[in-house]
Amino acid sequence: MKKLKLFIEEQSNELAKRLLDEMLGGNAVAIANPKWPKSFVDTIVKVIDPTEVVIEGSTSSRTIANAVPEHARLVATTSGTSGLPKVVCHSWENLEASAKASLAYLGAKEGEGLWINALPINHVGGFTTITKSHFANHHLVTLKSFDYSAFEELARSSSVPIYTSLVKANLTKLELSLFEKILLGAGTPPSRRPQNAVVTYGLTETGSGCVYDGIALEGVDIKIEDGEILLRGPMIAQSYRDGTPLTDANGYFHTGDSGSLGVNGVLKVDGRISETINTGGEKVAPNAIEEAINEALELPEYAIFGCRDESFGEIVAIAITNYEGSGITLDALQEVVTERFPRYFVPRRLFTVDSLPKTDLGKVQRARLTEMFSSAS
């Protein structure tokens, strides 16, 4: 019987190698963070339904509810911001197509590169540094967490081009010129991004980013249907954990994100359809407001979200960290948005927070903000 091994271990170079060896040997792998609360780890074990659980080198077998799909090599969970996480199964062919399309876009030469990763490998964005480095025959260093001194020291000591995947929060803490290319994901990109940064768009189901700087990678088709982004390509996961396909009859995956195709087919992503703010019957994309604010103002970390309202259903709100002393006022924010959008886009409420709720990859959980502040006076 095909094995699906769930590793509940801290990430490391050793674990990355073991995962790759298992996949090359024909098994499927999944990863969970040992620092998660036990109740959440139990949930992950249940939804992944592995044949074996490996905890710090100790292996225990399980009776599974569903047979492991024969094609599965990587079994990954979505962020699960609402309800139970979905579980998708990537084949080796999916992973290869994703890695090679990415490497081609980056112009990475085989055998001449180093990937440094500190993103969590239980998420596809961090995990695919393993497969990218494998198919490019590059070296890989997987750090346990973001130790910025160690990260830079590795970069400075390298004699080959360096590649990495980061989220926006990492950009201010590293000497970015050390890197050949930076894959930048997880949310609205900064307005002043480094020249060597590539803004990626993708999901767990697409094997990490499959649209770079708004351009579809080789083999990827983009279609907009009723405002929703649909994607088709060889890197789309073949099935969910129970074996059912992810795609429609024409091979397209329905992302649940809203967006549009502009000049020369460049994709503009507006955000999750579920995060669209419905205010007085008008639809507002939080990303669009954030992009406008980023162009006009220097703010501490913040997020636009929908706040429930008796009169309008929802109103636009903003949560800002480190607000005290920033000099930012709601009036100033409203003026910026009013110059660019109709009145219903304008933020009506401002909240201060110590930190924004985020996923492990640093993506803001707008739904959490809605729950946190909808009852506030």
Could you explain how this protein is built, in words?
The chain is of the alpha/beta class. The chain has 2 domains: 4-269, Rossmann fold (3-Layer(aba) Sandwich), CATH 3.40.50; 276-373, GMP Synthetase, Chain A, domain 3, CATH 3.30.300. The chain has 8 helices and 23 strands. The chain has helices spanning 13-24, 38-48, 92-106, 124-136, 148-157, 286-296, 330-338, 366-373; strands at 4-8, 28-32, 52-55, 58-61, 72-77, 87-91, 114-117, 139-142, 162-167, 181-185, 197-203, 208-212, 215-216, 221-225, 228-232, 239-240, 253-261, 267-272, 277-279, 282-284, 302-309, 313-321, 349-353. It has a 7-stranded mixed beta sheet, with helices on both faces. A 4-stranded mixed beta sheet has the order 2-1-3-4, sandwiched between helices. Helix 3 (92-106) crosses helix 4. It is globular, with a radius of gyration of 21 Å. The mean pLDDT is 90.
